[in-house]
Amino acid sequence: MTSASVSARPEEGVARTVRPLVVGALSLLGGLVLWWLVTVLFDVPAYKLPSPGAVAAHGWTLWQNGALTVHIQQTLAEVVQGVLIGSVAGVVLAIVFARLPWAERVLMPVIVVAQVTPKISIAPLIVLWLGLGIGSKIALVALVSFYPVLINMITRLRSVPTGVDDLARLLKIGPVARAIKIDLPYSLPAIAVGLRLGVLQAVTAAVIGEFIGAEAGLGYLEKQAQDNDDIRLVMISLGLLCLLAWALYALVGLVERKLTARFGG
Amino acid sequence: MSAFLSVRGISKTYTAANGSKVVALDDVDLDVAEGEIVALIGPSGCGKSTLLRMVAGLDTDFGGELAWTVEPRPGKDIGFVFQEPALLPWRTVRRNVSLGLEAQGDKSPKGRERVGELLDLVGLTDFAGSFPKELSGGMRQRAAIARALAYDPRILLMDEPFGALDAITRDRLHDDLLRIWATTRKTIILVTHSVEEATYLADKVAVMTARPGRIKAVHEVPLDRDRTPRTRQLPRFAEFAGMLRQELE
């Protein structure tokens, strides 16, 4: 039905996808122009607010030196590995909790306490335990990203239609087969929603970890730049973090739409 | 005909939310012969669905006895059609229908052949590769019936399977079910709240009353086994349906 109406008026379909992109780009461009106007009209000194051009030029030089690559890679590696570990933990716990209510009653208080504690206050402890390397950041990222996956999946599993539940019992589908054949595919859209929420928190957690103590990463770079009063580098790090988070968010959003279309039904 | 399943003195009491005891089923007796279609009819809350779930083994918390001539093998001998189709949205129609065989680890060509035959029987061969969301309500329920029969169970239990469908689709599915029965000769227990449905499909109708859930009477349907849409116009059809309706009041 949708495809029929789109093919009947193709220009409207194209407009619907292109218009938000154009508006979004213009809005961002407007922000940049405003920034540039502020630096020019109010004569703000460059050590307070450099012009967009100066920041971009400095960023380009650093990029060509390869000075940024290692930091981008580090933060990306922390986020990707942490989110993977976190979401697998979330999925496994959700399936266990759905089958064994007592496990949920025993473990949930600990999980909730870990979640309500501000992450920034846990970060020093984890860095002390796991060191300045990538391990402490992966642990922090996993800690924040597993929770939305867990909660979303538990909610979804509770809404498995009674017919499906009865069918699984009637056919004597065992717990492992059931998890693979029914629970996991049924929850994939909810897992994706959890991931979308988790991935933004994950970038924040990685940066917090890098602020507290690290040897590389965009957060580490930003902290260094702050210590050296290098405002251009602060802004470059900030921009890259923004870009990284946005790219991950868009990617997970895309995956979510695909999974919902296939498994949501 | 031999008693295929004898329900003897089945009772169930549960405690309601306000703490009072509710008698869901009270001393229910019912005989089901092999190859017979038995309809359980009654007002909502009479425990007809509960009784069906007990027969299926989905509810084991009851008093009394279910005596089978041959005890059903777990996961193999009972086919169940629910009120909603309960199809898995990410599986094609064919893979939904094959779920029972898959659960039993049956990968035999005979099982695959059977799935093909059943899809043919319910008129879904052309939709074998479609997903449930691409089907109409009637087609989904047909797929659910095929799924319940795919592993060749000895008895088919149906819990108001046509309740959510529009009248025309429902009539069509009635004829489909009769055609399926003619081919497979399955023993069928059908829970319904429609007297016409019970009259049109069943050999025997058990009328239940609510609070406490009891079987008030069991009637043989006075119609030939071969039923066509014309059967609905017979005086005997109207008479029997009218009698059932009166019993329900």
List keywords for this structure.
heterodimer; A: 265 residues; MetI-like fold; 2 domains; disordered N terminus; B: alpha/beta; Rossmann fold; 6-stranded mixed beta sheet; 3-stranded antiparallel beta sheet; 9 strands; 34% helix; globular
Write up this protein.
The complex is a heterodimer of chains A (about 260) and B (about 250). Chain A is an all-alpha fold and about 260 residues long. Chain A has 2 domains: about 1-45; about 60-265, MetI-like (MetI-like fold). Chain A has 11 helices and no strands. Chain A has helices spanning about 1-10, 10-40, 50-65, 70-100, 100-115, 120-130, 135-160, 160-170, 175-210, 220-225, 230-265. The longest helix of chain A is centred in the C-terminal third of the chain and has 38 residues, at about 175-210. Chain B is of the alpha/beta class. Chain B has a single domain, classed as P-loop containing nucleotide triphosphate hydrolases (Rossmann fold), CATH 3.40.50.300. Chain B is about 35% helix and about 25% strand. Chain B contains 8 helices and 9 strands. Chain B has helices at about 50-55, 95, 100-105, 110-120, 135-150, 165-185, 195-200, 235-249, and strands at about 5-15, 20-35, 35-40, 65-70, 80, 155-160, 185-190, 205-210, 215-220. Chain B has a 6-stranded mixed β-sheet, with helices on both faces. Chain B has a 3-stranded antiparallel β-sheet with strand order 2-1-4, with helices on one face. In chain B, helix 4 (about 110-120) packs antiparallel against helix 5 (about 135-150). The mean pLDDT of chain B is about 90. At the A-B interface, helix 8, helix 9 and helix 11 of A face helix 3 of B.
